[in-house]
Amino acid sequence: AIQDRGYNMGCSAVKWGAEDENKVTPEGLREVVNSRPNSPNSSKRSSLGSNAGAEAASPTVRQLSCAILQVGQMIDDAEKYLKAPLGEDEKERKKRQREEEKRKKEREAEEEEGIICEDKEAILTPLQRWQHSLMQCTNYGQLFLHLTTLDNSVVWSKSIMNTKCRICRRKTDPDKMLLCDGCDRGHHIYCLKPKLKS
């Protein structure tokens, strides 16, 4: 993407957020995106008289942030394969769910009373906050920080590359390994009886 100045998303749009409320299309990737909200914009000048504080995300940074987002979204079961800081443990998940239920009940009570109030922001999981922050990156350093955070959050010990066959006890041939969906234990297809061909 850096050398070719172009990134092929491989899909019509990438969505992220609490309920996939945000999305980026291939056309949207080509546009130059302004900096984060609440940061200095180009019309404001610094005390030195320059626009040093103003930043804009280049199309390349935007494309790379979209690529990193897609890598992060390839993790199907975030509860199982992510640890802190992007994963939630059981205690944090229950606390977030209780807060969501509380807000939902408050909203329903206000609707019954006829009170119209602003919608409160949804409570985001750490992964959803990471996605929002990633898509607001304006430079390569921020992208690297997000990529490193994702890499450190993945529980690599549950990878198929680290799985031993329960029968022969070897880690060889990960492409011929079957993993149980429930317990993550592996078996080579040629170690099973009867042997499987594919």
What's the SSE blueprint?
Elements: E1 14-16, E2 22-24, H1 26-30, E3 33-34, E4 56-57, H2 59-73, H3 78-81, H4 90-113, H5 126-134, H6 140-153, E5 177-179, E6 186-188
Antiparallel strand pairs: 1-2, 3-4, 5-6
Helix pairs in contact: 2-6
Structure description:
With 198 residues, this protein is mostly helical. The chain is built from six helices and six strands; from the N terminus they run E-E-H-E-E-H-H-H-H-H-E-E. The protein has helices at residues 26-30, 59-73, 78-81, 90-113, 126-134, 140-153, and strands at residues 14-16, 22-24, 33-34, 56-57, 177-179, 186-188. It has a two-stranded antiparallel sheet. The radius of gyration is 23 Å and the shape is extended. The relative contact order is 0.12. The model is unreliable at 32-54 (pLDDT under 50).
Question: Care to give the gist of this entry?
Answer:
The chain contains 6 helices and 6 strands; from the N terminus they run ββαββαααααββ. By secondary structure, the chain is mainly alpha-helical.
What brief labels describe this structure?
mainly alpha; 6 strands; two-stranded antiparallel ribbon; 8% strand
The amount of beta strand, in percent, is 5-15%
Report low-confidence residues grouped into runs of 5 or more: 32-54
Distance between the termini: 35 Å
Please estimate the helix content: 25-40%
Question: What profile does the largest beta sheet have?
Answer: 2 strands, antiparallel
